[in-house]
Design a protein that fits this description.
This protein is an alpha+beta fold. The chain is built from 4 helices and 9 strands, in the order αβββααβββαβββ. 22% of the residues are buried.
Length: 152
């Protein structure tokens, strides 16, 4: 299925942003050395618009990949400053880790969640990595908005 075809079957609702793969934490501390990355997780829930063909309904992988691509392409990430202002994050963005040995990754595994950490089962979280530039060390509170001005 092409992206256009998937868009006619599903929309995304409930856009949120987390600093963790499975909890509802929205803040994280970053260290700016120009190599380390911080990862944030925009999340949304797919909502069916019209009944898709059986091959789409039965292929959760297709649905997840569509949601991931839609979020990666259309979400704007912001930091809420100490004065309450919204500041767009313009750092180098990637959908993969650069494998720098000190990546700041607060994401937990499903096994961590089974040991007592709350896990969200209803939204799809997409990791987006930002390379933290020099001089950007500090505590950040993250939010997300749809770059198109509506729910993604």
């Amino acid at each position: 299925q092409t992206k256009k075809n998937m868009d006619k079957y599903f929309t995304l609702s409930g856009l949120k942003l987390y600093a963790d793969a499975v909890t509802d934490r929205t803040t994280t501390r970053v260290y700016g050395n120009g190599k380390m990355q911080v990862v944030v997780f925009p999340a949304a829930q797919p909502t069916m618009n019209t009944r898709p063909p059986v091959d789409v309904v039965n292929d959760i992988h297709k649905i997840r990949e569509h949601v991931k691509q839609c979020l990666y392409d259309n979400v704007k990430i912001y930091n809420i400053t100490s004065s309450g202002d919204k500041e767009e994050v313009t750092w180098k963005k990637s959908d993969t880790s650069n494998q720098y040995k000190h990546d700041i990754y607060h994401g937990q595994t499903l096994s961590d969640a089974k040991s007592g950490t709350r896990i969200c089962q209803y939204d799809i979280r997409v990791p987006i990595y930002f390379t933290v530039p020099f001089g950007s060390t500090g505590e950040y509170r993250w939010i997300a908005e749809d770059a198109r001005g509506a729910e993604p």
